[in-house]
Amino acid sequence: MQKNKINNLIKTDYCLAYNQNICQKTLNLKISLLTINDYLNASNNLNCTLTDCSKDNYLAEYSLNNQSEYTLNSDNDIYIIQNGLIKTSKPEEKHNIRPVITLSKNVKITKGSGTKENPYIIV
Questions:
Q1: Residue 87 β-bridge partners
Q2: Cα distance between residue 18 and residue 73, in whole Å
Q3: b/e map 66-101, b = 16+ CB within 10 Å
Q4: What is the Cβ-side half-sphere exposure of residue 97, based on CA atoms within 13 angstroms?
Q5: Are 35 and 27 in contact (CB under 8 A)?
Q6: How does DSSP assign 13-53, residue by residue?
Q7: CA Rg, the chain, in Å?
Q8: What's this model's pTM, rounded to 2 decimal places?
Q9: Per-residue pLDDT tens for 27-64?
Q10: Taking a C-beta distance cutoff of 8 angstroms, is the pair 31, 100 a contact?
């Protein structure tokens, strides 16, 4: 991304730890990793749980077809998405990352379909 375009990214609060569905710890970042909460919310399955959220979840496809990926975590545990499931990991294990950004509401898509071959062009 060009340096002058970084202003289109806005800082977003990412929740790292929940207690009874209330966020207890946040980080305010421009670039982050996918959170577990974002992954769960991407499913159309109303019965989606931490142990199985791959059904009707558009974010599960990557881990089902490729390799596991890190999520943004609390300080104490390392969570990954592997084969569409949320699992814990050991610090020495290696996984992919999926960068997450939040764009300013003023950003417009001018071209592209969002695929690797035809990425979005934004202004």
A1: 80
A2: 11
A3: eebbbbbbeeeeebbbeebbbeebeeeeeeeebebe
A4: 9
A5: no
A6: EEEEEEETTEEEEEEEESEEE-BHHHHHHTB--TT-BTTB-
A7: 16
A8: 0.64
A9: 777 788 888 878 888 888 887 777 677 878 888 877 77
A10: yes
